Amino acid sequence: MAAQSDADSAERPPGDVAPCSPRNVHVFVCTTSGRHHCGEQGSERILQRLRDLVEERRLGNVRTTRMGCNQQHHQGPIVVVYPEGVWYGRLRLQDVDAIVTEHLVGGRPVERLRITPDGPWATTALT
Questions:
Q1: Tens of pLDDT along 20-55?
Q2: SS3 state at 11
Q3: pLDDT tens per residue across span 5-25
């Protein structure tokens, strides 16, 4: 751990600790194309909005990646955030702002947008 500089300590009240660096986050967006798949449900626009917001807010700790089909297109478009393993579904473009603000920046998953994967991706199958 790097030593705290005198300038840093002079700016904070005694006993205050330097802020932690943000946690690394990896966001996967299903962009599989095909009838009834996430790509046909607007996931490309969701991915682009996500990337735009990450860049605007300078969230260097956040990576965004396309992913293939996870057999959840009936709940799509799908976004999965790691390391927490939070699944979001049935997303609209405007939902991306809440995910970025509340989850990626604030550290709190957006409960109203969460889904539980089913079938071979069901929670019990992943543990």
A1: 457 799 999 999 998 889 999 999 999 999 999 999
A2: helix
A3: 444 444 544 443 334 457 799
Strand partners, 30: 67
- pLDDT tens for 85-124 read 999 999 999 999 999 999 999 999 999 999 999 876 665 5
Beta strands 25-30 and 86-88, pairing class: unpaired
| Tokens 């660096």 -> residue | 21
Q: Which residues contact 87 (CB under 8 A, 6 or more apart)?
A: 72, 78, 79, 80, 114, 115, 116, 117
What domains, with CATH codes, occur in the chain? 25-115 (3.40.30.10)
User: Which tokens in the block code for residue 114?
Assistant: 């969460």
CA distances from 20 to 13, 17, 23, 24, 125 (A): 16, 9, 9, 12, 34
Instruction: Tell me the whole-structure pTM to 2 decimals.
Output: 0.77
Three-state DSSP at 23 gives: coil
Of 50, 48, 30, nearest to 40 (Cα)? 30
The length of the chain is 127
